[in-house]
Amino acid sequence: MKKFMDIPIVRALRPNQWIKNLILYSAIIFTGELFSPYYFWITTLGFLVFSTLSSSSYLFNDIIDLKLDKLHPVKKNRPLASGKLQLNKAVETAFLLAFFALIAAILISVSFFLVALLFILLHIFYSLLFKKHAVLDILGIAFSFILRAYGGEVLTGYHLPFWLFLTILFVALFVAATKRHAELLRRGANSRPALFQYRDRLLDSYTSMFGSASIIAYSLFTFLEEPPKFSSPTRQFLVTVFPQAIERKWMVITIPFIIYGLMRYAQLAYEGREAEQPEKIVTTDIPLIVSIAGWGILVITILYIL
Length: 306
Hints:
It is a multi-pass membrane protein. The chain is mostly helical. Helices cover 72% and strands 0% of the residues.
């Protein structure tokens, strides 16, 4: 597996970043349809489409930044910048991936195709324009997460609760702000044009603002939204033996996991540990993995068992 991941074209596609596209499953998770075969299958198809489009956009970004990446202390090791991947092959692969992904999207549905098209166009404009300008670069990253969540809605027809949608937005803004802060601290403003327009204290305020907003939005979601109800054996037992338990807002107990997760992520970011690669933090830091796993187990238990 490691040898396969070391193939230049595979590395250039950045499959480790496909984890971001798991947000498409939010619509079926929080509406009680996670174990519905049809909705799970259609969402998985959407996940594959978005992952293919993501890889196409990463290749496009590397093509646009080729000259700058060759001068960057870390990015110079990327397949295209290091010369291990030929430019013409990268261009051809990026085009074919986007083309076939959009064909697959329109075969699923016209509305999903429009969301997928907007997703790839956003990434193209991000690489060409948005990432060169402060604020627009952070908003561009956050909007791509919103499109992922909306893509899951379009695929299934199930809508995310308003406060959960806002939580996704604020968490995305939080991650983007910490990413820029880490780049500014570790590489300096020369590593990215937009960083010349940022200041350390400004990014600190962004991190604080979006982190606080994430906790507030998620707390309101857990308290205001009614979870789906199932006639599970556990629920029937609680109705008979302890009916008061059914009436409680059990999702509230997941809030500490969100608070710890954001605090831990911010700690790692301010220590300078791989905050430029959020997906690496999420998949390698044990305390953060335990926090996310604990949150996920609790959510599934509350939504599908209680």
